[in-house]
Design brief:
Chain A is mainly beta and 71 residues long. Chain A is built from one helix and five strands. The chains are: A mainly beta (71), B alpha/beta (267). The structure holds zinc ion.
């Protein structure tokens, strides 16, 4: 068992998982609209499946936000 | 710069701040700031920068005021419907503070005009609503070594990051625009009007901090908030080595206009 932080909140993992699996576990409906940082470092989309989250990691889901101007 | 009695009175609440003082107000009054987009974010940004006495404010926007804008674009009033946004904004700025020189650009910000427009400004503020222009602003500012403030809002949430040369840029966090079909637009997703004010005033404060040199900018950290819970977070970041524009092997070396996901297409 390991504990990580997702968007600043503790999450307990029962098994070793990848970023791809973490996205599913957190019910991220539109992974295309999310950018991911682990411990303040950007992770390439191509590396989601191969990047394993480790105990103590801080994972942030950064959402694309495009509103502001009009319409 | 010698302030008149009237100006000293107008800016007295800035001058009273020991971190700002007459010297800081002079820096504000000599500042040249470009606001891209005279909408939800651009409105509060322009109002506060005008009130603060920023010497030159440039505003670029190609749209006219629509009735549905008035729910959050507080620089535009009901009689302004159908008026070009830059004209409506200029009129309000002049009324708030005749000291401010306003330069209007009633056009889109494009790969073709970007460098030419930003070159005259000390700081650029992103108040746009779409990703193609957000990435264009980032690329133009990174390549031209201009500081800027990124801002985005959606539904009940907002995010902002301040860029100065050498710091984390927007592409360090969001490599490339999301696929157009994945993007919920404002017309589709909606936005709580006051969110624009919350985020825009944070961006305006960053501009004034940059001009006066007071405090620590939102560099290398992305501020996000959710108004439903009123939770604010700053997410620390470092420049990305593989960033397409500021990384070790940049692939973005000239400006491009990305395909626009328009509101019409999304309906
Ligand atoms: Zn970058």
């Amino acid at each position: 068992m390991s504990t990580i932080k997702v968007n600043g909140k503790d999450q307990t993992l029962t098994s070793e998982i990848s970023i791809s699996e973490l996205l599913v576990q957190n019910n991220v409906a539109q992974p295309d609209m999310v950018s991911i940082q682990v411990n303040g470092k950007f992770i390439n989309k191509e590396a989601y499946a191969s990047t394993i989250v480790n105990h103590g990691d801080e994972v942030d889901f950064l959402y694309f936000m495009g509103g502001g101007q009009d319409n | 710069m010698d302030f008149t009695e009237e100006q000293i009175q107008r800016y007295s609440r800035h001058i009273l701040l020991s971190d700002v003082g007459v010297e800081g107000q002079e820096k504000i009054s000599n500042g040249k700031v470009l606001i891209i987009g005279a909408g939800g974010l651009g409105a509060p940004i322009a109002l506060y920068l005008a009130a603060a006495g920023v010497g030159t404010i440039g505003i670029i926007d190609g749209d006219v005021v629509d009735l549905s804008n008035l729910q959050r674009q507080v620089i535009h009033f009901t009689p302004d419907v159908d008026k070009p946004k830059v004209i409506s904004a200029k009129e309000k700025i002049n009324l708030i503070n005749p000291d401010v020189k306003v330069i209007t650009y009633q056009q889109l910000f494009t790969a073709e005009n970007a460098f030419d427009i930003i070159k005259d400004y000390d700081f650029i503020v992103d108040g746009t609503d779409n990703f193609p222009v957000k990435f264009l602003i980032n690329d133009a500012c990174v390549l031209a070594k201009k500081p800027f403030s990124h801002g985005g809002i959606l539904r009940f949430e907002g995010q902002t990051l301040t860029y100065v040369p050498g710091a984390t840029c927007y592409r360090c966090l969001f490599h490339s625009p999301p696929p157009p079909n994945a993007v919920p637009t404002c017309s589709q997703a909606g936005v709580l009007g006051a969110i624009a004010g919350m985020l825009g005033t944070i961006q305006a404060a960053e501009v004034l901090k940059y001009l006066t040199g007071v405090g620590d900018l939102l560099t290398n950290r992305l501020l996000t908030f959710n108004a439903k819970t009123m939770d604010f977070r700053t997410i620390k970041s470092t420049p990305t080595e593989t960033c397409p524009v500021c990384g070790n092997h940049p692939t973005v070396t000239t400006l491009v206009d990305y395909e626009q996901a328009t509101c019409e297409l999304k309906r």
